[in-house]
Amino acid sequence: MADGAFGSRKFSMNRNTGVPRPARRFSIGEPGVNEASSKVHRQFRAAHEGHLPHAGLDASRSSTGVVWCTERAAEHGFLDEPGQWANLGQGAPEVEDDIEGCFERPKTIDVSLSSREYGPTAGIKPLREAVAHLYNEMHRQGKSSQYTWENVAIVPGGRAGLIRIAAVLNNAYVGFFVPDYTAYNEMLSLFKNFAAIPIPLSEEDGYHIHPDKIAEEIVRGTGVILTSNPRNPTGRVVANPELAEIQDLCRERATLVSDEFYSGYNYTSNCDGSTISAAENVIDVDEDDVLIIDGLTKRFRLPGWRVAWILGPKEFIKAIGSCGSYLDGGTNVPFQEAAIPMLEPALVQTEMVALQRHFRDKRDYVVGRLRAMGFNIRQVPDSTFYLWLNLSSLPGPIADGLNFFQACLAEKVIVVPGIFFDLNPARRRDLFDSPCHHFVRFSYGPKMDVLKLGCDGIERVVDKFRNLASH
To answer: Residue 177 to residues 145, 197, 213, 416, 470: CA-CA distances in angstroms?
Structure first.
């Protein structure tokens, strides 16, 4: 190949054997010996079409990163003895009732006669009213424009909510940030009514979303901005006044889709129970194109209930509610009824204080353990329950996400390789060009004893490879 950006690319690999073959045009980087000879890299390439050399191939609906990692862990016995493993990959909080200050979760559910019937695809009115009241109390006091039940749709989980939003979007460029939540990848590739445009964030800049990035996207015609906030996997948050500035830029120009599932895991205000939400800066709830998605999954620690909600302008919500009739059929009605008393604002405020203090303590524990092992954690996350771990300081054989993940499996520890958060819905980029390749996501969502088990296993991995490197 002639001199230029691709001049250093000498070979690519047969995806099943790892044997080099003539150059292809998709990757500008050259895989090192650890990638070329690694079984887990070959498995990844075989499962994810974006890293195969067939540009015209329609990508299969592959599993998300967490599911793929669980499948690999199952090959090592995870499903047979899950209690002996530290699953730091699943993005789920502990669900037990032993967090001091938190209310006890229901152990039984009353099933009313009416709940045996099909429920409205937009959710039952009492729960929609409870969600609207919660946001008005926590984020819109003193504002003339208030949310009503017509500004709320109840959906069966966050993924279903994202799919509904995607289904009703008009022809548009949809801007999304890299790295971000793995399931966006499938959602952004499922529908043909919009084009997904990646917006890379910089590690050197702390993966910060600056308002000028939003302005640049709007200038080039991006009509929808999608982001998690607080952010998965980096654990960063966009807070006011910058969040308000971003919403000002989007107002009457672009729809902002704010995934706020980690809104309760906010450590920026000394764990006083304050939550992060774009609802704070909405001027008119029916005019501002701001869609907020949240639910019981994370901050109420009930991922198995599959009860979530979307807030937005009535016109949007009407369409989002209606499309549930052909997408998912609506949310389980008995669980909707059981969720209503949980959303009483004073109860939620007390719950958030307890949640934040507990998870901040867990964050500080794992950060201390990992730094003692030699991990370079430049910035302690100010939200969520994730650490975005740079592996570059580790010995070469475990300095990339997939090989580190593979080594951890041998110690019965699950993490998620960073490559899964490098959203690539159009399957245009190659694995070895990813800036996320040398990262993993570590979840401190599980209970403390699991975190200790996981840190012990990671320490064994690091010590093993450091000893091998010294001989």
So the answer is: 30, 9, 10, 18, 39
Number of helices and strands (H, E) in the chain?
13, 14
Cβ atoms of residues 237 and 230 within 8 Å: yes
H-run or E-run covering 258:
strand 255-259
Half-sphere exposure of 386 (CA within 13 A, CB side): 31
SS3 36: helix
Pairing of strands 439-443, 416-417: antiparallel
CA separation for the pair 201, 209 (Å, rounded):
7
Q: Note the pLDDT tens digit of each residue in 199-257.
A: 999 888 889 999 999 999 999 999 999 999 999 999 999 999 999 999 999 999 999 99
* Half-sphere exposure for 420 (CA within 13 Å, toward CB): 28
**DSSP H or E run through 410:** none
Q: Which residues lie closer than 8 Å to 75 by C-beta, 6 or more apart? A: none
pLDDT per residue over 175-196, tens digit each? 999 999 888 887 888 888 888 8
The token duo for 375 is 């991990």
Residues 289 and 256 sit within 8 Å (Cβ to Cβ): yes
Q: Find out whether 394 and 465 touch, Cβ atoms under 8 Å.
A: yes
Q: Residues 177, 225: contact at Cβ < 8 Å?
A: no
Q: What does 133-191 look like in DSSP terms, one character per residue?
A: HHHHHHH-TT-SS---GGGEEEESSHHHHHHHHHHH--SEEEEEEES--TTHHHHHHH-
